[in-house]
Amino acid sequence: MTGASSCCSRIDSAKSFLWGALSMEQDASLRPERILDLSERLSSVAGAKIGEIARVNRAAKMLAINALIVAARAGEAGKGFAIVAEEFKKISTEIDAVAAALESQVRSDLDELSAIGGAILGHMRGQRLADLALNAIEIVDRNLYERTCDVRWWATDSAVVACLAQGDDPTARRYASERLGVILDAYTVYLDLWICDAQGRVIANGRPGRYPNVVGRSVADARWFQEGLRTATGDEFVACDIERCAVLGDAPVATYATAIRAGGEVTGKPLGVLGVHFDWRPQAQAVVDGVRLTSEERERSRVMLLDQRGRVLAASDGQGVLTETFVLDTSAGPMGSYADGDVTVGYARTPGYETYQGLGWYGCLVQAKALAERTVAAA
Length: 379
Known about the structure:
Blueprint: H1 3-21, H2 34-74, H3 79-154, H4 158-165, H5 170-186, E1 190-197, E2 202-205, H6 223-229, E3 238-239, E4 243-245, E5 251-261, E6 270-279, H7 280-289, H8 295-299, E7 301-306, E8 312-315, E9 335-340, E10 343-349, E11 362-368, H9 371-378
Antiparallel strand pairs: 1-2, 1-6, 3-5, 4-5, 5-6, 7-8, 7-11, 9-10, 10-11
Helix pairs in contact: 2-3, 4-5
């Protein structure tokens, strides 16, 4: 093994140890930020001790000078003492030179240590933030993949199919609404489920009591309806970006849709569309709030989910949701990190999951430097 590869191996091992040993709040002394803490402390101690050496040496010099004065007054009897005092003075001068050189070298080495420590820490933090961002967006992907499975499954439900197949039969529509209500009681992550005819008119929903103005509403211009009706088979689905839905209390929703087909068959003729409206806010907030950060890190970090245009879909501080656009530098690729002033940004693009390819969303963490790092940087 070469020296370089051995060094890299040690660095990788150190990173694994540091982050493996850091189990949230268990041992704050193992935080990588301690590198800079200790460097700053060592610099302070070294400076103080070198100053003490200089102070003691100045006192010794004064004693030597006083001794020379006393020896001169003593005349012939003080000559031997004068020689000793002169040598002591020379030694004090040498000690001054050694102390000055030591201070210069120690200061230079400590500055280099701080710079290297800061660079290593910045890289480690950036990689960790990117890993946390990837974990967050993967949780979202898996969650939304389940939503795509739900909509394709429920579109084949016999009550849902019969609601459209039997035309204007009020009994079939009422039963379908009741059936959707049962589903919603079990799947609490949804706000509502809508059955739409081929013209885009909602003819049944799962929560008519909560949302009484849904039935009879036209969604013919909605992207999810239009693309859902055009799906080629029952294996296909439509996934939309987060939008507020006025008729659902202006709540932000992720809507998934697919065609309801004759006989519930995969290749059956499209009769209409099933649209399912995922309750985005509480689910997304749980993801950004659940990112594994220490309490100290959390105070100086912002966790976000962004769409492909950088629009904030969720944020740990609750600010800017669906109104703010965060400019993300993705020049490093689909996953990476970078420094932006006093903050480090880590991000990861959705990798998708199973048949859900994702919508180009990102997990993103923005973290300010710790106080020790800002102090070292200022110095």
